[in-house]
Amino acid sequence: MKKNEVPQDGDNLVKGESNWLNYAVDQNGEYVQEISVGWEPENIALEQAWEVVNEKVEEARTKVLGGQLSPIAFYMEVNIMDIPLLANYMDKYQWQVRRHLQPDIFKQLSEETLDKYAYVFKISRTELMNVPTNKNTK
Length: 138
Known about the structure:
By secondary structure, the chain is mostly helical.
């Protein structure tokens, strides 16, 4: 795309992001970096995608606080992971990760396993054990 064709459609709707870096061709035919606030349909699609992610996080938080799931479910959603991906990071079988989503099994996990989950989620073991009760705290 040419430098003058880089999308600048209104405000960027993605929270926390003000600009996107794009590469475009300038008048000399060379690639240059060009800042864009985005393309409105792209911004709307991204906002909708983040709404879905946030809904899944809140659903997982509710289930964890209600005793239906272990904290692993919450942090898995916060990190936009699914069971196959998390199992891969943990060097576990998927069925093992599914079991660890059960609160009674989670309580029996070794310190080593808890530390590995914390490492994968980039949090402390204390954070892993205590899911935030406030949705503004992640």
